[in-house]
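Researcher: Re-running this chain for the archive, since the previous output was lost when a drive failed. Same request as before.
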Amino acid sequence: MKLLAIDCAASLCAACVYDADAGIELGRQVLDLGKGHAEHLMAVIETALKASGIGYRGLGAVAVSIGPGSFTGLRVGVSTARGLALALKIPAVGVTTLEALAAEAANAFPGRPVLAALDAGREEIHAALFDKALVLTYGPAVTTLSEATAMAGKATAVIAGTAAPQIAAAAGPTFDIGPVAATADIATYARLAAAKGPGEKPKPLYLRGADAKPQAGFICRDRTSRKVMVRKNKAGVPESGVQEKKSPDAHTFSSAASQGLCA
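Model: Regenerated structure tokens:
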């Protein structure tokens, strides 16, 4: 089975095509954007597909990083994965950034528990603890530095993620540290998704609310009626001056991707 993996959880906009049967990557494209994932993701996917020699119809599944991570980036990645899965009639598989980081740490330090931890700001850490077999034993959840430090010490865990240096510094004793990035390599997501297989539709993993709230006139397509649903006030008038209108049919993969979270 050929699998497309997508990651927009952090600053990277990444995609790769992975041969699950052979266990090898066939092609990839990775851009370090910071912002602007929505404008570049489809082109990144097209480049990865071209490098692999695989077309959309040759894919058997779509994998996507579901967070924790960038609020906007996660929505872009997950909606695209679900839109493509819907259009191609293939499963979409979600993989958390924490389990992907833990897998990379376990590869560097085999047979050890792993605490994957991301600096979430506001003196918060997004953490998940995995045992020696990479089975989740805690989280994903919001913790404090002291809680994460105590957890790592009690489990004698390898630490991975952007909060790893903080935890190691606070702990005193020397800890083994894995990758300290905000996200894992795109091939790691592909490999983990291939091992997981189909399950529930992926959803962004938000451990706290967004700093920026959606505007009142946020539009979401209703696939059944093919109409645009517009939030109205008590007088029945569309908010933010948005007028109700018929939505176009989704004939392209990019338009299907834009509807992913509404599917």
